[in-house]
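Morning run. Coffee first, then this:
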Amino acid sequence: MREETPLKTVVFRCKACKSTFEKPPARVEEAPEGDDVHPWLYFHPCECGAEAAQAHWARAAMKAWRNCTGPRTAEGKARARENLIGHPTPEEALRTRFNGMKHGLNAKVATYFPAKPDGYSFCRDCEVDRGWCKAQPCCEKQTVLFMKHRAAFEQKNPKHLMGIYADFHAALMATVSECLRQIIGDGVTLQVPKTYVDKNGSVLVVEYFDENGRKCVVTDVVAHPLFRPVSELITRMNISLADLAMTPRQGEDEAAMPGRLRDDGEARESALEFEARKVKALEDLGAMWQRANAAKAKDPVLIEYEQQNGG
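And here it is:
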């Protein structure tokens, strides 16, 4: 059943200045035909001079409340309350222990970051509502990053950080690839004009005139400046052909790794041959034991020791 009386307070969103505020509506209109969410439309003038309408998420919440299914009678509500007795169980508490990180009710507040938007370079393209973020005590994105790292270290569970570091590694590899493309495009060597400082402190380029009277610039051939940072980055990330098992020697030695059998014709043997070799080794074991006992009986040090101790 639709409401017949307008709301007393409404959350408004100004499209001009992107601000959000909650006030009593200054203007109320009837909703157009076919709008089954709410029978009224609400408006209020913003401080910037534009007229703000009801926030779209507030109106969407009204639609969700209207479409929700649940007990409506007193008897049904009483049964729903009985179903909550004994809950949450310890297992359910483990599943819901991070709910505070979503709604912020019991979350630890990260106070190490700027509270207002535009405090970071990524704020320009951030999908978080600017008005809502401005009203928060700290940056939403940095708070989520803070809380995920805190939860991971408190519980000693790195799975909470898999998504973050997967994105970080992908961005890092994209940066390395972009640097390599830049080096290939510019060339592995660059020609840099040679300069000197005169007596007045001015920086001048070293020039000369050739036999035809043309002015030429003296240049130094240097390696591309991106070589060093890219090589250091690749070394620290352990990006090598050996690590990826892509070297020719790695392919040859792969079959000889511990725990693996060589797949060459000379080393192959049938199961019957292996069984016969094992039986022969067991038969030779008895003879080896007899020879060891005979050698022990003739050991002069052991004989002297037994004589001294009455053995």
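Residues 10-70 form one domain. Good start to the day.
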